[in-house]
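Make up an example, fold above all:
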Amino acid sequence: MTDSIMSKAATMEIPINSNGDTGTLPEDDSLEQAAKLQWSLDEKVGSSRGTRDLQQVMVSGPNLNETSIVSGGYGGTAEGIIPTSSIKGSNMHHSSSSSSMTADEATRGVAVEKLETVKKWGLNTYKCTKQMISERFGRGSRTVDLELEAQIEVLRDTKRKYENVLRLARALTNHFYNMVQTQHALGDTFADLSQKSPELRDEFGYNAETQKLLCKNGETLLGAINFFVSSINTLVNKTMEDTLMTIKMYEGARLEFDAYRTDLEELSLGPRDAVAMARIDAAQQLYQVQKDKYERLRSDVVIKLKFLEENKVKVMHKQLLLFHNAISAYFAGNQQQLEQTLKQFNIKLRPPGADKPSWLEEQ
């Protein structure tokens, strides 16, 4: 009876109006009674079966590894079943994609930072170049410290003169070294001739002793001159050069300071709306940074110039005294005074042949 009622209900046509709502059926009462009857039967059977299933589930428990999620409506195909293992795999794929996205974001952040650095460098270079061109053509103003710039010019002139002294001292060393070598060879020749010429033995012998003495005194004087050249070279190419490098940094900071000062002055003469005020504030901050840098380097230059002058006087006083005493003692033939001069300035001479390699090194 139930099957016949359900088959009848399944074959009945359900009219649908234009709004998608079902129309009023003539057999509504009979269909409703059949549905209630079927629902009561299913409820009795389902309650008894559900009690047994619940007891079985509580004893054994569900297997989560075999749990599936059914997708789709009633009567769907098997394609709608999604195993939970595929969900786990998708989660792992999602985590790996998230880590790759994080790496990409970090790389992008580094690239953006480099781009900002290049942008700031380009803007700074443009402003400094503009300021330099304006100064050369006389259209821009520059910060001038007359006293400091005069000291810098004196230092540069002094360095040029000291470089000339260094060049001449090196030339004297080379020439005097060649003369000493010639005297040494001439003394050996005189000594050899004194052995082979009995009639001129005494004359050759006197000259040989004289040349050997001159050669010995010449080597002593060469030690003093080499010490003089080394000290002048340190003063010119290290001490003065270090100060000039600081001066170069100071001049670059001065150019940047004037460039940002000019930029701030131009913005201050413009409109005073919200955007312009924001630009003025930013320019004011950059100007203050450049001003602090300029003043710091200016202070460094002043201090280094002061210490350089003191060091130069001290070094040159010692070296000029050494040079004078050594030259005077050599040409006066006063060997004792020449040696005393080297001891006074703590100059140690290399023994003859110290620069030559040993016979083991020559093998």
Q: What stands out?
A: The helical segments are 2-11, 28-60, 84-136, 146-196, 201-268, 274-331, 335-344, 359-362. The first strand starts at residue 68 and ends at 70. The longest helix spans residues 201-268. Strands lie at 68-70, 81-83.
